[in-house]
Amino acid sequence: MLEAITGPNMNYILEELEENFPPITPNPEDSMQKIMYRSGQRSVVEWIVHRMEEVRSDGL
Questions:
Q1: pTM as predicted
Q2: Alpha-carbon distance 6 to 1, whole Å?
Q3: Does residue 10 register a pLDDT over 60?
Q4: Distance CA 21, CA 7 (A)
């Protein structure tokens, strides 16, 4: 469960994820495969951010 790993360690991991998988703006030269792959990576980071916000708002 995510609740078990929240805190300083999770914040550090999230910071690294944000650095390694930032939001991207595709350009016309990018293949559809590359765009989809990067979007998938970013969607995982966004899910983690959203989940951490839920946990914090629930006071867990």
A1: 0.74
A2: 10
A3: yes
A4: 21
Q: Which two tokens stand for residue 46?
A: 């966004």
Beta-carbon count within 10 A of 54 CB? 11
d(CA 20, CA 45): 10
Indicate the pLDDT class of residue 3, thresholds 50, 70 and 90. low
Nearest-angstrom CA–CA distance, 39 and 46: 10
The tokens describing 14, both together, are: 């999230």
List Cβ neighbours of 10 (8 Å cut-off, separation of 6 or more): 2, 52
> Is-contact 3 60, C-beta < 8 A?
yes
Q: Could you tell me the end-to-end alpha-carbon distance of the chain, in angstroms, rounded to an integer? A: 12
The mean pLDDT value for 6-31 works out to 88
